[in-house]
Amino acid sequence: MFDRRKRISPYRKKRLIFVLLMFLVFIVGGYNQERISLEYRIGPKDLLEISVFGLDDLNTTVRVSEEGKITLPLLGEVKVQGLTKTEVEKELARLLEKKYLQNPQVTVFIKEYQSKRVSILGAVQNPGPYELLGRQTLLQIISEAGGMTEDAGETIIIIRQLADGSSKTLRIPAEELIVKGDAKLNIVLQPGDIINIPVDKIVHVYVFGQVRNPGALAVKRSHIPTLLQAIAQAGGFGERASKGGVLIKRINKEGQEIQIKVNVKDIIKGKKKDIQLQENDVVFVPETIF
Fold this sequence. Notes:
The chain has six helices and 15 strands. With 290 residues, it is of the alpha+beta class. It folds into three domains: 10-37 and 116-197, Outer membrane lipoprotein wza domain like (Outer membrane lipoprotein wza fold like); 47-112, 2-Layer Sandwich (wza like fold); 202-285, Outer membrane lipoprotein wza fold like (Roll). The protein is rod-shaped and about 100 Å long.
């Protein structure tokens, strides 16, 4: 008979660990972030308030253009996209000192963070754009998006825009971050980051006959088991299992059913390699006649 006793699947274990980990993330309040100095980098549509000490005529409020530039009295167009507030202050002071002023004191205040967003796509409950509130981490945004779905893949991909207009791709192993809780991987996000959690589809293989828990095995496509692994996941061989005549039924690319007869004893003894199963394979373990 099929064993209907509830067992916690590996995915549900990961979900429980993720919830506990998120609780700790918010309690600790960014423990790992104290070691990471990451000032906000200005982007298009941000609103900047610029003041030059002692020269009110040069004070202005200006919005960053789509090209990442601002237009100022005396200086004209200045590119600020990708710079921090401090870097903009230094650059404006340098330009003013070069032509007009001695030791100018420039202050920049960001009034509106229009470009302070990230997007999360793929295998999360609520994909879409999210506002960054302060220095938020990868786990915090995944949590805001409702957490990862059952079909989430093994790798979290982050596409990050750089100041020179190029981009780089970061790859975070999901299990190391969520299950093992590697704080080094819980990076601080930057405005404009695109987080993609690719889908790893849930597929099935089937094990019937003389095993302890016959039925369907739901697995991720990247983790389809071998023959011995599938039998083990089905509870192992029953007492009357014929290990010498295990059948694998498979539908080939032409849509035809083929049967593969396997002497599992040879695999166990190391005489033959274990067989990698495929999606929708049916394994049948016959009963011994002796």
